Each structure stands twice: as structure tokens, then as C-alpha cells.
Amino acid sequence: MRRLLAVMVALLAVHTALLFVRPSQATPAFEGEGLDVGVVFDVGGRGDKSFNDGAFLGAERAIRELGARVRYIEPGEGTDREAGLRLLAAEGMDLVIGVGFIFSDDLAQLSREYPDVRFAGIDYAPPVDAAGNMIPPPANLAALRFREEQGSFLVGALAALVGDSKKLGFIGGMDFPLIHKFEAGFRAGVQAVCADCQVIAQYAGVTPEAFRNPGRGQELALSQYQSGVNVIFHASGSTGLGVFEAARRRGKLAIGVDSDQQAEAPGFILTSMVKRVDEAVFSAVQSVRDGTFQGGIFQLGLAEQGVDYVYDDHNRALIPDSVRARVEALRAEIVAGRITVPFTR
Amino acid sequence: MIILAFIVQTLRIATPYLLAASGGLLSERAGIIALTLEGWMLTSAFCAALGAHYAQSPWVGLLCGVAGGIVAAALHAVASIRYRANQVVVGIAINLLAIGTTRFFLRLAFDSSSNSPRVPGFDWFTSSGAGAGGVLDTLASLLNPLVVAGLLALPVVGWLLANLPLGLRIRAVGEKPEAAESLGVDPARVRWVAVLAAGALTSLGGVYLALDQHQFTDNMTAGRGFIALAAVIFGNWRPARVAIACVLFAAAETLQIQLQGLQLVPSQFVEMIPYLLTIVALAGIVGRAVPPAALGKPTA
Fold first, then answer.
1. Using a CB-CB distance cutoff of 8 angstroms, which residues of chain A are in contact with residue B76?
2. A23 vs B contacts (CB less than 8 Å)
3. What's this model's pTM, rounded to 2 decimal places?
4. Among the four given CATH numbers 3.30.460, 1.10.20, 1.10.3470, 3.30.310, the one describing domain B2-122+131-282
5. What ipTM was estimated for this complex?
6. A39 touches chain B (CB under 8 A)
7. Over the stretch B13-36, which tens digit does the pLDDT of each residue have?
8. Any residues with CB less than 8 A from the CB of A74 and at least 6 apart, and which?
9. How far is B93 from chain A (nearest CA, A)?
């Protein structure tokens, strides 16, 4: 029994130790003047080739161009996210960035506790009061939100124009309002150029696990392609990697999300609906350096270049000039406010 | 064509369930609770991606994946057989350990917390481009050694349990280890063999997931190990019924995938099915669930 206890204690110690071990980066020294920025990543972490990597790129650019000192924290499975933010705030960083809607409540709380620290929340979801009105964030908290529906609208139009089929596919990760924005925009974009087209929208699940289930993504995509869909837009994290695998297998097209996902299946990615998380992070750091930082809710849409779709050498061959012109015309209409894109189903 | 596509998709989805459930059945019949199927699969999926990446060969990936599954199973066996620890606690610990270590080594090997690079898989006969998606192409997606292994796994385990001396010993130590011991069988050794074999079988399910996706992604098993365990319980620890349970769960999932566009049944409901059926089975509403008598009990 004592031996068992010893073994269990040893296992526990090893396990606990593993929680803290990560490839070490030179810990920046915190002394003297300078711009200290802390970034806490969302589930998925760095290397997700998506959201978190976007934030990472923006922060790296801030290091190069603005001379910022950046500290990254990557919360592990089930750890207390709030602790990471609090640690950085307590260290007196100039700016603390939480990457992902999941930090919303913690950021609102901490920005009140540390009024001298500036905070920024990517995809910050403001709390609502009993009447359903958004409660504005404190003055030291910038809520950076994206109008995903506008970018999704453009890729929807693009998909319908290129797809050569009356059926278009959408695969979401978790079935909840943030992802419904993508679906609603995509549908509206399809309808805008092809009134009798049909969008088959499916979700990988109802828990956050649905963003990490490529096996499910592949099966969903295969059955959509089977039913006559030629282009699928995914908004499903790494579940989407399965969608790309299906596109490869069936020789069909898929549309990436959040960042340019062309490299995941070259030749089978029509385009990607990009959220410029890198821009948002970079300009937040810049505003702190320039002393122009402001709290409040910022909606980054097509007009602010917060969302866009990829058009470059990799996919030029897939998109005829006439289609490009049509989509750009739609962009102008949205920017001018003549088209309002819905963000709920 | 629609029916064919349905059957083929069901078989593809059932493959990891069948493989993991055959391992789970073997382990549980020997009296070791198979709560670790999820962790074994995840570990082996990662090892498979690692092997396939460095050797650029799916076969090396297969070997590495099985090796990883056996190592994870050995850890389980050491704690629960050698040190007679509470099997449920060990099971939960190993599942958590698998999530943590795979992510840690993912970061170390590929500098990503999310996924590995693309690795080669068993894609024989899969065409892409023109002509893809036809009947032959649909069938060809089954020409994968691991899908075949999935179809054979439970019949083989069932035959082993029913006909071989080893199978008899496994069943004996799962029901009454004292009786087995009085006949000169070493229960601990039989359990070791069963758990290691279970680890190897289950790992094939993880290898299938990784190689079919051509990469490892963080926590990619997404609860499949638990669904397989649910199939073992719902199948009342009998090979044929377990196989039917696996196919049933997979068919429900396929149905959900193919009908979701129509919004006939809320997807939340279909996701509940395996767990709901397990509770129903355990509650004894349809027949009585009879687990192996010595399940979860350490040997003397």
C-alpha cells in the first residue's frame, strides 16, 4: 500500500510537472522603460494556423516594428484562464490581450480591478443586462469584434459564382451564435448572386469539442459533396482540416476561415475568409505606444479591413476576373452601407 | 447509391469504435475496467502521426501507433494489476495524461499546439479530380487495412474468448480470479496479456483516425473511446452484441450527418444516443446488464 502511494505521488508529481514544462523562450527581462504587452491565447494555442496564430503574428510584428516586449501565456486543458490574465495584469503590463470570446467575463472583471492596466479582448462578447442591452466595457478595455458576417457574405457570393452547382455547403463547429454569424453571412452572400441556390448548413456538434473533431468534419463534408455540393465554407477550427481532406479526396473546393488556409490543401482551397486578428492586435499595441488607446467596442468589418477574403497568386486561377469584379462590387455596396448583412439565422 | 453511401459511411465511422470496443471487450472480460480507451487511442494516434511523418510511411506509422498504445496500456496494467490501484482513478488519470503528453510532444516535435503536418496514409485507390465520387470510388474508401481490421477485430476477439485456452483463462480471471488461481492459472499474468492485447487493438483505432486525416490534431479522438466503452456495456460484454452496438451508434451518427441539413431531429438528441442507450442498458430496462463478476477488482 505504501509503495502504491509512492507510485501515485510520483505520477502526480510528474503530471503536475508536465503541466508547467513548455519549450522555453528567453523570458524577457522586465526592467526599464518600454512597452510591455501580455497575450493570453485561447484553446488551440499557438500553431493553430488560425485565430491564435493571427494574434501571434500581430504581436511579433509589434515586437519588430514597435519594440514591444511581449509575453505569451498559453493556458492548458481546463486550467484557469483568468489566472493567466491576472498574472499579467498584476505584473503591471501596459497592455494585456485576451485572445478569444472565452475571456470576455474575465476581462470585464479584471479591467475593473486593475484600472491602470489597459486590456484588449479579441472577439469580446459584452455582457447584456436584464433588458438585453449590451453593457459597455470599462474605459480601459477595448473590445475588438469582427463583422464575420460581412466577410462570409463575400465568400458566399464567390462560392455561388464559382461553384457550378445550385447547392452550397456550410460546416460550422459548435452550434452557437458566434458561428451562426458566419452561416448567416454566407447564406446572404449566396442568395445575393443566386436566388434559387440552396445552402446546406451543418454543425459538427454542440460542445467546444466540435472545433477539434476533424474526423466528423471529413464525414460531414464527404456527404455534402456526395449530395452535389461543389464548394464548402467551414467555420470550425481544426474540424475544418477534415473538410479539406474531403475536398482533396473528392477533388472539390473548400473555403478556409480566420487565416489564409491555402497551404492546408493547395489547389483545393478556393479562398479563405480572413479575420485580421494580427491587424487588431498590432493596432492595439500601436495605440498604447502612441497614447491614443481608447476603451469601448470596436466593430471591425470590411470597411475597417477587419475581415476580408484571400485573393492572391495561389487562387487567382480559380477565380475568373468577372467573378472577382462582381464580388468587389458587392464589397463596395456593403462598405457604402447599401447592403446590410444579417448576423443571425 | 444513397444506401450504398450510407453503408460505406457507417462503416468508416464505425471503424474506430469497432477497434476500440474489441480492445475494451478484451480488457473488461479479463476484469480490468477499460475507461482508458480514449487515452490509448489518443496516444496511438499521436505516435502514428509521428512515425508516419519521420519515416514518410503509413506502415511505420502503424507500428509506432501500436507501440504507443501498448506502452499506454502497460502503464495502465502496472498501476491497476501490479499495484492494484483503483481502476477508475487510474483510467481517468491516464486519459488526462494522454491529453497533456500528446499536446506537449506535439509542441516539441512540430512547434504547434494544434496539429501535426500532413503525413502519408493508406490511400490506395482513392482518385481525386474527375470521376471522383462514383460507386467504385465510394467502395474504394473501404480498401484500407484498418477498416478491414475493424471488421475483423470483434469476430476474432469473440472467437478467441470462446475457443482458445487463453480466452477461457481471460474469462475466468474476469469472473472469479480465485478459482482460476486454484487451477494453476496466474490471474495477474493473464490480465497483463489481456490488457496489452487490448492496448494494441485499441491503438489501431487511433492509428486509423490519424492516418485517415493525414495528421494528428489536438484531442482528435473527441470522445470516441467513451462511445466504444458505451458499446461494450450496451452490448452486454458479448462480442456479437458489442459489434451491433458499434454499428448502431455509427449508423445513428451517419443518419445525423445525412439528415442534419433537413433539421428533422435536433442534433443534440442524436449526440445523446450512445450515452442514453448505455444508461438504459445499465438500468436493466432491456434485459439485464451482466458485467464480468470480477470487473474492477484487483487480484489477490
1. none
2. 107-108, 111
3. 0.84
4. 1.10.3470
5. 0.85
6. no
7. 999 999 999 999 999 999 999 999
8. A22, A40, A41, A45, A46, B113
9. 9
